[in-house]
Design goal:
single chain; 476 residues; alpha/beta; Rossmann fold; 2 domains; 7-stranded mixed β-sheet; 6-stranded parallel β-sheet; 29% helix; globular
Length: 476
């Protein structure tokens, strides 16, 4: 295999991006090579204004105002009855109380602020990029209020560890009105299924990832399509962008964990329905460079008795980067495709193109390329936007997520109606389309369900500019 020219430095799935996010522990030593430093430290983020980000690592306070969770077996009052296990701890940030019998329904809301918690890896093997994350949040929230209240985003580090993520989510739920899963399929799944969130009726939002254990959770909402739901669209995208290869052999490469089983089963079903030959290549969650090379060898020489023309990916970026390097050394040049988000970000484009400038790749994404920046996003200049493409597209994703949360909060009608149970009920009816009122995401319609995404953008790699450009769209 040729020498690698650099692996992905930072996690590319932020602000509800939930794809096969993150890097294996073996990849930690390769961080910071592609785009330099910038991961969050263990002390978290600190915003410069109310709309900025603030927080600490697991178990710490959020913006200095989080009360203790307490203990006990009381019940917390709600608009629909009672919830067991409220405890007797201190109140959360702003208004509301986490105590047994207290009005937990308005935790995180004060006379002038609404606190929202978000967790993602800030330390460990997969740190999120600080600058783009912080700037993207401010670009929206410093220019929008909800019922006259400033929205404060409070960040906590989940250390790219599902068990730590659960602790973080519980802490955030005690002091914030709702919680957002910022990155990592396994962490999002672990947090969403935490019993404490059910007990406290904490609304939990993320980008669409796995459906494993999430479909029936009344308080969980995915604001973009799950990987499984994107399978027909991936197949359609290949027909549009690589029509000569659509019916040829496909290699389906997915991480071999329960949280990716639905994606594999879904793309298998689509290929079977269309009479397309394929092979499945499962990959380990904690992998080596050799695992990537082995996957390439299988796809190239022994996939359904031949060589795959299309390689479907639901793996983390560094695994794909290693695969591209191995494919280049083997003179193997397939169409790399897959669901969004992770591999379709500009942060991934440079190291992939560094391995092979002839790489053909297209991925779905909840937000478009920088060639389709919405006017409102381009107009915001407080704070000053980041200049690099690898940060700017992440800012647009964060902006798009914030736009959805803003409209969802407004959908309850008034600050007096803004309780957790009312918000959950409103989310079950929540809908919106691209251009009205959303300018980034394709569209949402929950219609009583919990996966509301209606479509995705098609992103095609351009190694000339080392960016993804918008090739089209699906659904919405």
């Amino acid at each position: 295999m040729q020498p690698r020219r650099g692996r992905l430095a930072l996690l590319v799935c932020v602000a509800l991006a939930g794809a096969a996010c993150g890097l294996s522990p073996g990849a930690a030593s390769d961080l910071q090579r592609a785009v330099g430093s910038g991961g969050l430290g263990s002390s978290g983020l600190s915003g410069s204004s109310a709309a900025g980000l603030s927080g600490t690592g697991a178990g710490g306070t959020s913006n200095g105002s989080a009360g203790g969770g307490g203990s006990g077996s009381g019940s917390a009052a709600s608009s629909t009855g009672t919830v067991p296990g409220g405890g007797t701890g201190g109140g959360g940030a702003g208004g509301g109380s986490a105590s047994g019998g207290g009005a937990y329904e308005t935790v995180g809301i004060s006379s002038n602020t609404i606190n929202i918690g978000i967790h993602a890896p800030a330390t460990g093997a997969a740190p999120v990029p600080l600058q783009a994350f912080q700037t993207g949040t401010k670009l929206f929230w410093e220019n929008h209020t909800v019922f006259g209240h400033q929205v404060v985003m409070n960040f906590m580090d989940d250390q790219y560890n599902p068990s730590v993520a659960r602790q973080v989510c519980e802490s955030l739920s005690r002091s914030n009105f709702l919680v957002i899963g910022g990155a990592g399929t396994d962490q999002i799944q672990a947090c969403a299924t935490d019993p404490f969130l059910a007990q406290s009726h904490t609304p939990y939002l993320s980008d669409g990832v796995t459906t494993n254990g999430l479909n029936a959770l009344p308080y969980y909402f995915a604001i973009s399509q799950s990987y499984a739901a994107q399978s027909p669209e991936v197949y359609s995208m290949v027909g549009q962008l690589y029509p000569a290869d659509q019916k040829k052999i496909w290699a389906v490469v997915t991480e071999n964990t329960p949280n990716f089983a639905d994606a594999q089963a879904s793309i298998d079903t689509v290929l079977n329905q269309n009479g397309v030959p394929y092979c499945n290549i499962p990959t380990p969650k904690y992998y080596s460079q050799q695992d990537a090379a082995t996957a390439v060898t299988t796809a190239h020489s022994s996939c359904h008795g031949g060589s795959a023309s299309v390689v479907y990916l639901d793996v983390d970026p560094n695994f794909w980067i290693d695969m591209v390097g191995a494919a280049q050394a083997s003179l193997f040049s397939p169409d790399w495709v897959g669901p969004g988000l992770t591999n379709g970000e500009d942060l991934v484009a440079a190291p992939v193109c560094g391995e092979s400038t002839s790489t053909k790749a297209s991925f779905l994404s909840p937000f478009p390329g920088l060639d389709r920046q919405p006017a409102g996003f381009q107009a915001e200049s407080n704070p000053a936007p980041d200049s690099t493409a690898s940060s700017r597209d992440i800012e647009m994703d964060v902006y798009g997520v914030s736009e959805i949360v803003y409209q969802a909060l407004l959908s309850v009608g008034s600050i007096q109606n803004l309780t957790r149970d009312n918000f959950i009920a409103a989310m079950g009816r929540f809908s919106g389309t691209y251009s009205s009122p959303f300018t980034v995401y394709r569209g949402i319609n929950f219609n009583g369900g919990h996966f509301g995404g209606l479509g995705m953008w098609e992103e095609q790699l351009n190694c000339g500019s080392q960016q993804y450009t918008t090739a089209g769209s699906q659904g919405g």
